[in-house]
Amino acid sequence: MGAVGSEDQELVRRVRQGDALAWEAFVRLHQARVFGLAYHTLGHAEDARDVTQDVFVRLYQHLARLPDAEALVPWLLRVTRNACIDAQRRRQARPPAWDLPVEDVLLEAPSELGPEAAHEAKTRALALYRALRELTALNRELIVLKEIHGLSLEEIATTLGVPVGTVKSRSNRARLELADKLAASSWGG
Amino acid sequence: MEPLDLTASILARTTGTTCPRLRELACAYVDGELPPLDVQLVEGHAAHCPGCRATLAALRESHARLPVFARAEPGPYFAARVLRACRQTPPPSFWARLVDRPRMALEGAFVGVALGALALTGAGVPVKPALGLVTRGLHGVAQVVRAAQLHTEPPTRSLR
């Protein structure tokens, strides 16, 4: 995970103390990440919004349990993943709809590129996004946690409740499956 | 006959195709975790194998581009929706907040040991053995507190 600054530490401290403005900033700072994981897990935008809201409301009720800033993101992702599992248990099984507009999934287009290079980058990212959606739920989850959110193998093992070695071998298989789908697509050429 | 064909012919009569071995090393290669000799072996195979070359290129590209999907936009008014839902949720009571503190029980144990020590000395137990008992008790509680901090779990069923 990325480095945590003193401002992040201070924000968490203020949130724990019940500062309403700090809480709003916290929600705005983390909602896209929580929603991103929920959407890639559930495949339904409104379900992902419900889960994201549920995560923040429950968090609000237990602010004292908020971990320190450096452990926050892995913790938040674990909480979100478990909330997604609860949501999937509550509702009837149905295939993912992937109903979120692509622009809302591709938020971080590189701004320093020229128009042609930016278009090329977007085309490749879309090919990657399509391949990601074709993965099995298990492989997609591993890719989302490791490659997208950058969790360490140890953090993923804690999240999934499996040994680190298992995470490593499964995640390598998932990465190869994704690479094969990409290589087989027109992008892979 | 081209050298590539000769190599393929020899491999066909010895190890068989070596692509599966490359796939075992491919992720570590892309992550830069392979020792130099393995890097040479992977690159040597990929130079002559278009399929494995494409796999390595796709692995490299996906590793570099996937982080752009970490965040998704839930909608322009979503933060307001969350904040409204939080406002409508009754705040936890003083006791609920107190009990919710993960170290509450352990802190209680800490206070209990200290009170026990006071009671022992008050009951006429010699000060030195009582102090040794208390020190060991406090040390044990502190160890448990540190272990609990490392394994603090999120609250509630949904937030486990």
Which labels suit this protein?
heterodimer, A: 189 residues, B: 160 residues, mainly alpha, elongated
Can you tell me about this structure?
The complex is a heterodimer of chains A (189) and B (160). Chain A is mainly alpha-helical. Helix content of chain A is 74%, strand content 0%. Chain A has helices at residues 6-17, 20-42, 45-61, 69-90, 102-105, 115-134, 137-148, 153-160, 164-184. The longest helix of chain A has 23 residues, at 20-42. The radius of gyration of chain A is 18 Å and the shape is globular. Chain A starts with 5 loop residues before the first helix and ends in a 5-residue tail after the last helix. Chain B is mainly alpha-helical and 160 residues long. Chains A and B meet through helix 2, helix 3, helix 4, helix 5 and helix 6 of A and helix 2, helix 4 and helix 5 of B.
Gist of the model:
The complex is a heterodimer of chains A (189) and B (160). Chain A is mostly helical and 189 residues long. Chain A has helices spanning 6-17, 20-42, 45-61, 69-90, 102-105, 115-134, 137-148, 153-160, 164-184.
